[in-house]
Design a protein that fits this description.
With about 400 residues, the chain is α+β, with helices and mostly antiparallel strands. It contains six helices and 21 strands. It is elongated and about 120 Å long.
Length: about 400
């Protein structure tokens, strides 16, 4: 075939398009970096291996130390009713203190949830005198005071609680024709290029499970009628320490009150705040309005993740803050996940892969005889969230006006 005759100066437009090399950078620019900090951090703390599709753990706590008065009582009343079931917390010869009045109260006997008591213990020797009891007054069980030569007291036992979660199987796959794997591509050849991206996506799945997974198990699921497990995450387990900002501004006082409840249990130096940009934006305003001493913007490393830190006014602890940038894609309206934060105690969280089922790269997964290349990352694992009162959940935060 004869070429086209061109006269005069030849520009880029007279040369065949396929004759020109494309100026393409070898580096492929990623829109969002790998922000799976929770998976990275929990992977660096202790990790055990599961031997079943359901994992269990036992939780125990100290014997309860407080109860309360259901009804108001006069100064001379010698009978106190406590909430249902609380009669087992106290026993004869226990000393109670009314936290509002300071009065000492000795338990004479217990009948179900009704206490027969002696009032004003210690008043005769200069202590606090008996006073009227209000409904809801909190009573501290200080300790028992047994008489000399007393009989063996009735033992009391606090049963342990069973925690459990199910393993979940995730599979991140990719497949190319044999021809596609053979040709040259900018940024590298397939399937290696896609394997790298699939690895990030696979890790992001477990990041999402860690926060938003739903604990569930079905014995037979159509169409294959095989068992299917779902691993629960922080959203599922953290129930007690909930702060609902209710689509309003997050205040330092509200945050400190919430953090105080979380720090009341578990470890003091291994709690981390995973927060959406909307939550951190609210906290940054505190910094600008004079709380600079409470905010440390200098990054530090915690379990291999760079974090900022906020100094809690509740206990004075330094709380590492991890900004979950990908949550900015979630809505904040109607208490969407874009307004969430979790204050998690990493000493009470574990990743638990099933034995021989931790993340694996399986190659050559294509059907025999088909001219394609198929591979996948596969993992079956779960999370342990022990003692949910060691953690906290914040919802309903919106960006500041």
């Amino acid at each position: 075939m004869a070429g086209t005759v061109v006269t005069g100066t030849v520009s880029t437009e007279e040369v065949l398009t396929d004759e020109r090399k494309i100026d393409m950078a070898e580096r492929i620019r990623v829109l969002d970096p790998d922000d799976s900090q929770f998976t990275t951090m929990t992977d660096r703390v202790s990790k055990r291996t599961a031997i079943r599709e359901k994992v269990n753990w036992l939780e125990e706590e100290d014997f309860p130390r407080t109860t309360s008065s259901v009804n108001a009582q006069l100064v001379g009343d010698t009978s106190i009713t406590v909430p249902a079931g609380n009669g087992k917390i106290v026993a004869a010869n226990d000393l109670l203190r009314n936290m509002r009045t300071g009065e000492g109260i000795r338990v004479v006997s217990v009948s179900t949830d009704t206490l027969t008591v002696a009032r004003g213990v210690g008043a005769a020797t200069g202590g606090i005198a008996a006073a009227a009891i209000n409904a809801g007054d909190v009573l501290l069980v200080v300790a028992d005071a047994q008489p000399q030569g007393s009989d063996f007291p009735t033992p009391r036992y606090l049963a342990r609680v069973l925690g459990y979660n199910y393993t979940q199987t995730t599979r991140t796959t990719w497949s190319f024709t044999g021809t596609q794997t053979a040709i040259e591509l900018y940024g590298g050849r397939e399937p290696a290029k896609e394997a790298k991206r699939a690895g990030r996506r696979h890790k992001q799945k477990w990041e999402a499970i860690g926060f938003f997974g739903a604990r569930s198990f079905a014995a037979a699921v159509a169409p294959d009628n095989e068992p299917q497990g779902f691993a629960g995450g922080a959203l599922e387990f953290v129930q007690s320490n909930l702060l609902d900002v209710n689509s309003a501004a997050l205040t330092p006082s509200a945050f400190d009150s919430w953090a105080a409840n979380v720090f009341a249990h578990g470890s003091s130096d291994n709690k981390v705040l995973f927060a959406s940009p909307a939550v951190v934006m609210n906290m940054s305003i505190w910094n600008r309005s004079g709380m600079g001493s409470q905010w440390q913007p200098t990054p530090d490393n915690v379990h291999g993740v760079k974090v900022d830190a906020f100094i809690s006014g509740a206990y004075g602890y330094r709380i590492p803050v991890v900004v979950k940038k990908e949550w900015s894609a979630f809505p904040t309206a109607n208490k969407g996940f874009g307004g969430y934060a979790f204050l998690l105690d990493l000493d009470y969280i574990e990743q638990i892969p099933l034995r021989d089922r931790d993340t694996k790269l399986l190659t050559e997964q294509q059907p025999k005889g088909k001219d394609v290349y198929s591979a996948e990352y596969i993992r079956e694992a779960t999370y342990e969230f022990a003692h949910q009162r060691c953690h906290g959940k914040l919802i309903g935060c919106v960006p500041p006006p």
